[in-house]
Predict the structure.
Amino acid sequence: MCGIFGYIGPRTNGLELVVDGLKKLEYRGYDSWGVAADRGGELFVEKHVGKISGIDTKIFKNTSASLVIGHTRWATHGGVTDINAHPHFSGDKTVAVVQNGIIENYKEIRDELGREYFISQTDTEVIPQLIARYRKTMNFQEAVLAALRRLKGRYAIVAINVGTHQLIAARCGCPLIVGIGQDEHFVASDIPAFLEYTQEVMYLDDNEMVIIDGEASDERPLDQARGRRVTSSKRRETSRPSSGQARDEKEKFVTDHSSLHFLNIETSQPIQKRLVNIDWKAESAEKGEYDHYMLKEIMEQKATILRAIDQSDEDILKIAQTIRESRGCFFSGCGTAGKVCMAGEYFFSIIAQRHVNYAPASEFPVYHHFLRPESLLVVISQSGETADVLEAMEAAKKKKARVLSIVNVAGSTIARQSDTSLLINAGPEKAVASTKAATSQMTLLLLIAYAMTERLQEGRRLLAEVASKINDMLNPRFLVYIKEIAQLIREHNNLYIIGKAENYPMALESAIKIQEVSYIHAEGFAAGELKHGPIALVSHGTPCIAFVANDEVREDVLSNTMELKARGAYIIGVSPERHDVFDEWIHVPDVGVASPLVNIIPIQLLAYYLSVLRGLDPDMPRNLAKSVTVK
Ligand code: AGP
């Protein structure tokens, strides 16, 4: 969480550039935003509560700066105030820092430095203060290194020093990527921040820092054609075979780059980094004709299922073989991705009669007793950056178990740190609520489950049929009907969802969707569990959603739905068939074991319309962030 972005180079519109880039990182947090710049040897700082998307970049039109850092915040330590917004700076205003993550020992450092020097309640402020203290006897690089060695926690930082016009970035557990432009450099939590300027990147790994030297003044000649000042830099590259993890990246091995220096934080040893070419298209992340990203991404499911199954038979069969050979296979993820893992547990049981264990990633490390070198951990993550998932992977690696990841973001930390990684190819998912990523993830788990029993082509046929039926389902009349249901229930404070077997995880996932964007108290239950307690919550008119698939548990779920109805519940049935017990019937196609894929879509839409009808912003719900990089 939190997006950080830094620029150093010849452009003089660095503030505008950084603000624009931060807007593309807003999904990482939107409590407040801020920028700091070196303006002719003086520190310029501007920071405010609120979303950066509402800021007109032109406010910085007349403020020239070519060394700038910026931040969009998801608050952890200290309330949402202007003062707690990043960047934070040293008392002498020579050093400014932005941070993503948590500094666990900040209290101890603050006490040591003297509380009276601190103006914010954040953990981050200790970093510039520490650097400034070391700076009294050291150069900037040594001072940052000394400060970093004092910090405990998972974080990424970018620091600037106005005296030497330098930028230093460091990574210890949170993502940071260096963009290599022509005579200029970018450092960001995620690539879209600078994608319009360069597609060449170097990934910082944990415990690494990069020092980027700039020109000490802006008195260099201006290249009129490009609106940039002229500098020189050199780099030598040699080709290197691709890692095979992120198929749209080409790698080169960089042996020298005159203004970039990578170091290991613990040993101070220089590091060679690979130069990776990112073959992404910036435009695919726009909202287009839709009011919100969430709706756009729901509608994209007409195409994303097909993109998910566009994998080579060889890759899928190899993964199936790895799972088959493992002794103890765990599926793990967080939030929606966790519910997908749970659905995967059912898919593997129903299709492949293979037992896999699901554990939420935040709980997974406590399973370490069951891990051995023959174990396999399959992690699922849209962003590929979720801290709890990374920790689960660390737990598995400690026991020498293999890690397979299914992610949406190529080059993400989870993809790079796993033994094998598969991309779901859903395209950028910007809304905080995960929709198209979830159905693509389930698609791949289904496909792998079929591949486990030599029925890969049967799985492909089923999923192609699902894709075509979803295309038919997402028609304007369907959307109008779901909006009408949202209108009927929008004033309710409580809502319950039931499902059984592979649709039990969908009941849980429906609850997440409705909670996060509409703020209605929604809860999902295994249909048979209601009578053991939760049914006491149901009273006259309580809206309840029931997933009634055409499967072996249909009669059980119908009985449980009747029990709800008998207590006065208003029943919204999601089913291929109309049943008398339904007050509203959401008609979904009959796709057999793939029913979770079609069942979740109307509920994604329902959550979206509930949010809009309640006057909320479905793309950026309160208290949340798209990428959860803290524990
Ligand atoms: C989904 O709607 C949620 N916003 C959230 O639960 C999300 O799925 C979770 O944080 C995991 O994210 P990841 O897929 O990027 O790892």
User: Anything to note?
Assistant: Residues 595-613 form the longest helix (19 residues). Residues 334-337, 381-383, 386, 389, 432-434, 512, 516, 628 surround 2-deoxy-2-amino glucitol-6-phosphate (CB under 6 Å).
